[in-house]
Amino acid sequence: MTTKKSDDQDRIVIKKYANRRLYNTATSSYVTLDHLSQMVKENTDFVVYDAKSGEDITRPVLTQIIVEEENKGQNLLPISFLRQLIGFYGDSLQGLVPSYLEQAMRAFGHNQEQMREYMQGTMQGMFPFGQFEEMNKQNIALFEQTMKMFSPFLQENENGGQPGATPTKPTAPASAPSDASLSELKSQLEAMQAQLNSLAGGKSDK
């Protein structure tokens, strides 16, 4: 059980009560999951504790926010990705997944931020949509490719991920990603970063 930490003074503390109500101790007011979602988008750091036990329940609350957003039709998580992610629970590679996902999303977010800055700074609405769309496709393809490389056994079945379908297992056991594969992924990320830097440099020359 994870309980309250001494460094929580730098974060907003949210308490969750037995009636499922969330209480923001910084504003002395009750909040909803939508409020917490907005706080995340505004980069407001907070931690959620069970009001009775003192247990840190930030992770399940954030997961609940994702479920709520998906139920609203804000579909960011492809079925194939969800199947692969579920497959890691209890697998020998499970310990590698959190750090990889954190690094991959950080790199993806950095690329997205540079795209926004470039588009906002471009004069007269002349946006190079073709180049940005291509880089976005590369980002997504790289992310899905890496998840498949790390996946120990899951593959898309012949139904193409239709509801009720059962993932199949490859005939041969998959091995952990090799140094060469990891090096190749790193090179691809660096190539995309170089492409973004080149675009940014082109803008500044105008």
Mean pLDDT: 74
How many individual β-strands?
4
Compressed to H and E, one letter per element, the order equals EEEHEHHHHH
Outline the biggest β-sheet: 4 strands, mixed
What is the percent of helical residues?
40-55%
Taken from the alpha-carbon principal axes, the silhouette is globular
Would you mind describing this structure in some detail?
This protein has 206 residues and is an alpha+beta fold. The protein contains 6 helices and 4 strands; from the N terminus they run βββαβααααα. A 4-stranded mixed β-sheet has the order 3-2-1-4. Strand 1 and strand 2 form a beta hairpin. About 11% of the residues have low confidence.
List the helices and strands and how they pair.
Elements: E1 12-16, E2 22-24, E3 29-31, H1 33-41, E4 46-50, H2 58-71, H3 79-88, H4 97-121, H5 129-150, H6 179-204
Parallel strand pairs: 1-4
Antiparallel strand pairs: 1-2, 2-3
Task: Sum this structure up briefly.
Helix content is 51%, strand content 8%. The protein is of the alpha+beta class and 206 residues long.
List the keywords.
206 residues; alpha+beta; 4-stranded mixed β-sheet; 6 helices; 4 strands; 51% helix; 8% strand; globular
